[in-house]
Specification:
By secondary structure, the protein is mainly β. Helix content is about 5%, strand content about 55%. The strands form five sheets. It has a 14-stranded antiparallel barrel. The longest helix has 10 residues. It is elongated and about 70 Å long. The two termini are about 25 Å apart. About 0% of the residues have low confidence.
C-alpha cells in the first residue's frame, strides 16, 4: 500500500470539477488541496457548467411549461504554494466560490413586456494562507480572505405580482469588496497516502448601495424607484473536511464533506425591503426577502483514484448534495443532487501534469417560490427531472 509523493499527487490532481454545482449559490467548493501539496506547487484550471432546469407552473389559471432557465457559465481557479522552510509554508488561492446565472424566457409567470426574470451573481476570492508544521506530519494554517461580489437581478411577470408590483423590479449590485478569514489543520502520513484536513471559513459581510428601480407604476413601484439606503449582503461561513488514504498499491480512496450555513443567508435590498414592508402592512408589515434559504447545505463527494503508470492516472467519484431547502427561490429552483464523475491525468514529465474531468448531475426536484411566499405552503412552479453536466481542465507544476 506504500505510495510515493508523486503517485499520490497524480491521483488527486484529477478532480478539476469537484464543486461546479451545489446548493444555493455554492459553486467552487472552496478547496485548499493545492496548499497541502508537498514542496513548491502551482496550478490553474477552469470549469464549465451546462445545466438544464425546466418546469411547469402551478397557478390557479392552469399549468404552463417553463423552458430551460439555467444558463451555462464558466469559472476559473488558480493556486500557488511555497514551502519557505521545513516548518513554514505560504499559499495564495484564487477561486469564484459563489455565483448564479439564470433567465426565464417564455412563461407569463416570469416574463412580461418589460423583459424576462433573470439573475447574475459573480464573486471572487483571494485567500492568503500561512502554514506552520511544528512536528512531522502536522500542518496548522490560517489566513485572510479578500472577496468581491457583484450582481444583477431583474424580476418580471405575474409571479411577482405584475409589473406594477415586484414584477417590474430591477437591482444592480455594484462590485463591493470585504475581508474574512480561514483556519484549519491537516495531518498526513505520506508513506501510506494518508491525509486528513479540516478547514473553517468565516462569513464575509458586505455593505452595498444597490441601484434599485421599477419598470412599473403605482405605490410599490414608486417606493422601488425612490427609497435609498445601504444593503447588507453576508456570504456564508463553511467547513470542509477532506479525507484520503491508500487502500492498495497505487490506489487511494478519498472523500470530501462540506457544510455551508445557507440557513442564515438572506438578501433584502433596501428599497425592496421598504416596498415589501408596505405590501405586507395589512398582516403586520414583516416584509420578505428577495432571496433566502431555509436549510443549511451538506454535501459529500467520495471516490477512488488509481495511478495506471508513470504518466497516466484516473479516478471515479460519486457525490450528493442536500440542497438548501424546499420550496426554494425561483431564481435557483433545484433541491440538491446526485452526481457521477470521472477524471484523467497525463504527466509528460515528473514535475507537471494536465488533467480533465466530467461530472453528470441528477438535480433534485424543487418547488419554486417568490420572496413573498416564503414561510407559506404556496409555490409558483414545479421543477422536476432536471440535470446538468460539468467539465473542467487543470494544469499543475512542481518546482
Amino acid at each position: 500500500m506504500k505510495l510515493k509523493h508523486l503517485s499520490t499527487a497524480m491521483i488527486l490532481a484529477t478532480l478539476p470539477a469537484t464543486g461546479v454545482f451545489a446548493a444555493a449559490l455554492d459553486r467552487s467548493g472552496q478547496s485548499i488541496s493545492a496548499f497541502l501539496q508537498p514542496g513548491n506547487y502551482f496550478e490553474a484550471g477552469l470549469s464549465v457548467l451546462d445545466p438544464t432546469v425546466e418546469g411547469k407552473s402551478t397557478t390557479a389559471t392552469g399549468s404552463q411549461s417553463i423552458s430551460d432557465m439555467g444558463d451555462d457559465y464558466t469559472f476559473y481557479n488558480a493556486a500557488l504554494k511555497l514551502q519557505l522552510t521545513d516548518y513554514l509554508s505560504f499559499g495564495l488561492i484564487y477561486d469564484q466560490p459563489f455565483g448564479a446565472d439564470a433567465e426565464y424566457q417564455d412563461s407569463t409567470l416570469f416574463t412580461n413586456a418589460a423583459g424576462n426574470t433573470k439573475v447574475e451573481v459573480d464573486t471572487q476570492n483571494i485567500s492568503m494562507l500561512f502554514g506552520v508544521q511544528p512536528i512531522k506530519n502536522v500542518n496548522l494554517y490560517a489566513g485572510g480572505v479578500y472577496q468581491t461580489v457583484k450582481g444583477n437581478v431583474q424580476l418580471r411577470g405575474a409571479g411577482y405580482g405584475g409589473i406594477n408590483a415586484f414584477g417590474g423590479y430591477n437591482a444592480d449590485i455594484p462590485e463591493d469588496s470585504a475581508a474574512g478569514w480561514l483556519a484549519g489543520a491537516a495531518y498526513q502520513i505520506p508513506e501510506i497516502a494518508l491525509k486528513a484536513s479540516v478547514t473553517y471559513r468565516s462569513e464575509i459581510k458586505h455593505k452595498v448601495n444597490v441601484d434599485e428601480s421599477s419598470a412599473g407604476a403605482g405605490p410599490i413601484a414608486a417606493i422601488l424607484n425612490n427609497a435609498t439606503g445601504s444593503t447588507d449582503i453576508t456570504t456564508p461561513q463553511s467547513v470542509n473536511l477532506d479525507l484520503q488514504t491508500g487502500i492498495m498499491a497505487n490506489t487511494v480512496a478519498f472523500a470530501n464533506v462540506r457544510w455551508v450555513n445557507w440557513k442564515d443567508f438572506a438578501i433584502r435590498p433596501y428599497a425592496f425591503g421598504v416596498a415589501a414592508n408596505a405590501a405586507t402592512a395589512a398582516v403586520g408589515g414583516k416584509g420578505f426577502d428577495l432571496v433566502a434559504y431555509t436549510d443549511d447545505q451538506w454535501s459529500v463527494n467520495a471516490g477512488v483514484g488509481r495511478k495506471l503508470n508513470e504518466q497516466w492516472a484516473g479516478n471515479v467519484s460519486v457525490g450528493w448534495d442536500s440542497g438548501a431547502g424546499n420550496p426554494i427561490t425561483t431564481l435557483g429552483p433545484t433541491e440538491g443532487y446526485w452526481n457521477l464523475g470521472v477524471g484523467v491525468q497525463f504527466s509528460p514529465a515528473a514535475n507537471y501534469f494536465i488533467s480533465g474531468g466530467v461530472k453528470y448531475f441528477w438535480l433534485g426536484d424543487a418547488k419554486a417560490q417568490s420572496g413573498a411566499q416564503f414561510n407559506t405552503d404556496n409555490y409558483l412552479a414545479d421543477f422536476t427531472d432536471n440535470h446538468a453536466i460539468a467539465y473542467g481542465m487543470k494544469i499543475g507544476y512542481r518546482f
